[in-house]
Specification:
The protein is of the alpha+beta class. The chain is built from 15 helices and 17 strands.
Length: 439
């Protein structure tokens, strides 16, 4: 069997890899002793992919916002029912998600694994779009969009992104708008499917207590993988994004009891990001730094909490993609502006006085331990592996990069990233109910 082993010594895990004749990369991560099996079938196609063409085509295709999510919905529909109906009798749970960069379909099972795997591959690779079922789906997705618009957590996030980015499609709602969904046609869906659901633009990862030889042979059988296929060579177009933020402040009103906020800093993409490992290292450094400043054990957190300015919902994270990135500090607060002012003063003090190396050592050790524990979840590994793979990164490398991060590098990130000119604050305030009482 012609496969290669990707070894992660630091976590004592292996992933086996084989590229099929059709271009699909298949990965298998053995989990001996696990009763659960898992498979994820993912494509490098997300809500950001609105303008593209095949490499040798002259025509540049532009599609309506939200089409990747629309396509995810429609692939579950089949001529004689719904793909969900295939899995339930076999005791499997199947689902899917669309984010800014990928669409993924996955299932978990404890039995009938290969039958479930065949079902997954078949329904994702066999679209069934008609004018009638597309029109019907528009009503369903429109209701979903309206529901999102009334969701404070969703609104505070996307207001944050709209304020931070001028042109980049990450500022657009993953589900699209009522108007864009209304414009979507059966032909648009087939164009996207035929472009992005080519096996060479996809990966399949399987995990569980299974035999690797059987995994690869069964997958080849399911794809009838005999004749080589021309790989999908795509050109994706994204607008130039200024380094400064669009708006530093944005607020909205919804039915919430306590204001919600998203505070963050825009990352400046590097001039040349060919070395994807530098992207992974930046992510590791910023996650350590955010943990050092905002974790529940820090003096900053305790001070804000004791003043009643934040609660247990407070957290920080970092998003790092080749063409965009930002930090996130989020939570609920009776006074988000005071939270922002306190954070800004704290960071100015840290820039002046420096971080504590003992805090760095402690946080880094903690994150190494958390990263190792994540490998107990085959769902987490599958989702994260797919996300990293489409950035030309190997998730198994992350822990080694995390271990290699030096204190001086994190100190430098403190100076570089936390720039108040690239800061955005998004707030959802409580709606004045009295002003909405019908006369």
């Amino acid at each position: 069997m012609d496969y290669t082993e990707i070894r992660g010594e630091a976590v004592n895990e292996s992933i086996y890899n084989k590229r099929l004749n059709n271009g699909l990369e298949v990965f298998f991560m053995p989990k001996k002793g696990y009763s659960k099996q898992y498979a994820i079938f993912a494509t490098k196609f997300g809500s950001n992919d609105l303008k593209f063409k095949k490499l040798h085509d002259k025509e540049v295709i532009e599609v309506p916002e939200g089409i990747a999510h629309f396509l995810e919905h429609k692939l579950f529909e089949e001529p004689n029912g719904n793909a969900f109906d295939r899995f339930a009798p076999l005791g499997a749970n199947v689902n899917a998600y669309t984010n800014f960069n990928i669409t993924a379909y996955y299932f978990t099972s404890t039995d009938n694994f290969y039958e479930n795997l065949k079902n997954l591959i078949e329904f994702v690779q066999q679209p069934y779009f008609t004018d009638e079922n597309v029109e019907k789906e528009k009503g369903i997705i429109t209701q979903e969009i309206k529901m999102y618009q009334d969701n404070p957590q969703w609104r505070v996030i996307f207001n944050f992104l709209k304020a931070m980015y001028h042109q980049h499609p990450v500022r657009k709602d993953i589900a699209g708008t009522v108007e864009s969904i209304g414009k979507t046609t059966k032909e648009d869906l087939y164009k996207c499917f035929n472009t992005f659901y080519h096996p060479s633009n996809m990966i399949l990862l399987v995990s569980g207590d299974l035999k690797k030889e059987e995994v690869f042979s069964r997958v080849e059988e399911f794809f009838d993988d005999e004749k080589p296929m021309e790989p999908a060579k795509l050109v994706r177009y994204y607008p130039d994004e200024p380094s400064h933020v669009k708006n530093q402040y944005i607020e909205d009103n919804l039915y919430v009891s306590t204001p919600m906020f998203y505070l963050g800093y825009k990352r400046i993409p590097k001039a040349a990001e060919e070395n994807q490992i530098s992207l992974l290292k930046e992510e590791a450094m910023l996650k350590i730094l955010l943990d050092m400043i905002f974790h529940k054990a820090t003096d900053l957190y305790q001070g804000l909490y004791n003043e009643g300015l934040i609660d247990q919902s407070f957290y920080a994270d970092y998003v790092c993609e080749p063409d965009y990135g930002h930090s996130i500090i989020s939570g609920e607060s009776k006074d988000p502006q005071r939270v922002k002012e306190t954070i800004n003063k704290w960071i100015l003090s840290l820039k002046k006085n420096g971080l504590k190396e003992e805090d760095f050592i402690r946080v880094k050790r903690k994150q190494i331990g958390e990263n190792i524990s994540h490998y107990n979840s085959i769902e987490y590994v599958g989702n994260t592996f797919a996300s990293y793979h489409f950035k030309n990164l190997n998730f198994l490398d992350y822990i080694n990069i995390l271990k290699a991060v030096r204190f001086e590098e994190v100190q430098q990130q403190l100076k570089n990233h936390f720039n108040e000119e690239r800061q955005v604050l998004s707030i959802i305030k409580p709606l004045d109910r009295s002003s909405n009482i019908d006369n």
